[in-house]
């Protein structure tokens, strides 16, 4: 069921958005060469406890997950692009890391993701390819948000994302994409990363959605890691992921998870 939020409820969602943004900022700053992914999860867990928030991930067990997730943040490295389950791995110089985090504050959820290169950005072909991939997801996210205007349709967001992705030379997987956000992390409507303008559910004031373009460097095929969660590219190429929680208002899109 698709729910529309009142202006007052959208205001009540702002603290969750700010908290999610703060966690990604602090965990991103801590993601240095030699730091263990489990340390990053512990930092996010500590911030949740200190804020009195609730994790959306730790007990999360959808049909595509092998078991409850068990951690509080997704850490996807290099050829992993979504649902990266933190494990005993120390970050290396030049790793492409995607962080995806969702939490509930006072009963309202926000969801956001960011990708970046750990350590010193590499030169040469590898560094250029990483920068292009990350920037494409960022540009696609900006395009999707710009299309999230009242009176438009979900397909307008999807088409805007796809135009950036295809324009950068990437194929696009639509198995996973954006979604409704509210009292729970995942709800209707689905917001695919490819679609046709003018199609799909109308964007009405009060609709709150996560817009999340993710691209792989040279494929649109993925497989699930033996951990039962982490999604990796079928050909070993790298992936990147950008996401914000956005409320549709009378005045246009409001990004609830904006980072300073």
Automatic annotation (TrEMBL):
* Catalysis: reaction(s): Release of N-terminal amino acids, preferentially methionine, from peptides and arylamides
Entry keyword annotation includes Metal-binding: yes
**Which sites bind a divalent metal cation 1?**
100, 111, 243
Q: What class of enzyme is it?
A: hydrolase
InterPro entries according to UniProt: Creatinase/aminopeptidase-like, Pept_M24, Pept_M24_MAP, Pept_M24A_MAP1
Q: What is its EC number?
A: 3.4.11.18
Q: How is the cofactor bound?
A: Binds 2 divalent metal cations per subunit. Has a high-affinity and a low affinity metal-binding site. The true nature of the physiological cofactor is under debate. The enzyme is active with cobalt, zinc, manganese or divalent iron ions. Most likely, methionine aminopeptidases function as mononuclear Fe(2+)-metalloproteases under physiological conditions, and the catalytically relevant metal-binding site has been assigned to the histidine-containing high-affinity site.
Where does the Peptidase M24 domain lie? 11-250
Any idea which UniProt keywords this protein has? Aminopeptidase, Hydrolase, Metal-binding, Protease
Family according to the record? Belongs to the peptidase M24A family. Methionine aminopeptidase type 1 subfamily.
Q: How does it assemble?
A: Monomer.
Name-wise, this protein is: Methionine aminopeptidase
Q: What species is given as this protein's source?
A: Oerskovia merdavium
Gene of this entry: map
